[in-house]
TrEMBL record:
Domain Polysaccharide biosynthesis protein CapD-like: start-end pairs: 6-282
Keyword Isomerase: yes
Source lineage: Bacteria, Pseudomonadati, Pseudomonadota, Alphaproteobacteria, Sphingomonadales
Entry EC no(s): 5.1.3.2
InterPro entries hit by this protein: CapD_C, NAD(P)-bd_dom_sf, Polysac_CapD-like, Polysaccharide_Synthase-Rel
Keywords tagged on the record: Isomerase, Lipopolysaccharide biosynthesis
Gene Ontology MF terms: UDP-glucose 4-epimerase activity
UDP-glucose 4-epimerase CapD C-terminal domain boundaries: 285-332
Catalytic activity line of the entry: UDP-alpha-D-glucose = UDP-alpha-D-galactose
Domain of life, per lineage: Bacteria
Gene Ontology biological process terms from the UniProt entry: lipopolysaccharide biosynthetic process
Family of the protein in this entry: Belongs to the polysaccharide synthase family.
The name this protein goes by in its record: UDP-glucose 4-epimerase
Amino acid sequence: MKAKRILVTGGTGSFGKKVVASLLQEGVEEVRILSRDEGKQDLMRGRMADPRLKFHIGDVRDRDSVERVARGVDAIFHAAALKQVPSCEFFPIEAVRTNVLGSENVVRAAMNHKVKSVVCLSTDKAVAPVNAMGMSKALMEKVARAAARELGQDADTTIACVRYGNVLYSRGSVVPLFIDQIKRGKPITVTEPTMTRFLMPLEDSVALVKFAIEHANQGDLFVHKAKASTIADLVEAVKQIFDVPDHPVDVIGWRHGEKLYETLASAQELLDSEDMGDYYRLRLDDRDLNYASFFSEGDEDRAEREEFNSHNCDRLDVEGTKQLLLSLPEVREEVEAWQAR
Ligand SMILES: O=c1ccn([C@@H]2O[C@H](COP(=O)(O)OP(=O)(O)O[C@H]3O[C@H](CO)[C@H](O)[C@H](O)[C@H]3O)[C@@H](O)[C@H]2O)c(=O)[nH]1
């Protein structure tokens, strides 16, 4: 990454902040951030205080602002998104505007300015999606990969996507909620104890994106072979960490747009994939519009592959989940404060 100019859309979010700090530490020449909220930019400018960091106010929905900021950059991490399931569910057209049309703007600007690499951040909720957030992210992947197909392997710009699962301890997610419920003496609310989720520390998502930048061929989509746990084990792990074995638990039932388990790679995608150790490379299907899909070139072995999901992956038990939680400084701080109360 040395001596490069990198653009991070949505750079003031939790992923953005983490990736920006790591890029600056690696010695990149310039990091540009494109985001909407001047307050968040100002906070980050003050906290990071690094002259290589350049803040651009704008919105991926607005092609002009994306075109301006993409000029002269070598790589783009496209993280700007509407990512909350409920808000996308109630305002789906807003998800289309940001996640689909905004991504098209980013990809087109990258092509226009011959940016070498673009990585678009997606989610496991984009595979066989059941909610508007996942659907819009699935379409983002399609938009990015259609542009990749159009460019072909020898183009100036390489476009890739990554998918990751639930980021542990991210704002508004279940782990900080459970901890807050313990601290306030309220019952822990569990939707469905047998539900599973891939659990990823934020560092792993940064590593995944960097892996994609380094290894992408045109149109590749990378997933991390993340581990998963059941919500029941997650609750038990949190209770053990905070040493509250008798804390009450309420089972409240499923929320809108939820799945029992999440899928990081479908069976069809895994048919044309490469096992790269900690990661899968899911290759672009670059057949053109006129391929004989229904007559002679269908996927005969499609039924033989199993998808990679949070039920059939390497599952963490309570002890494993505890170790993963305690690897996060934020959780350790919470536990120390709890013990010192
Ligand atoms: O009170 C709660 C809340 C959630 N859960 C369960 O905990 C798991 C994780 O829930 P989160 O809310 O942390 O995560 P989601 O899988 O629902 O997805 C979250 O992470 C996504 C990004 O990965 C989006 O940001 C999304 O809006 C956000 O809800 C789910 O199985 C959910 O059913 C509970 O048991 N009790």
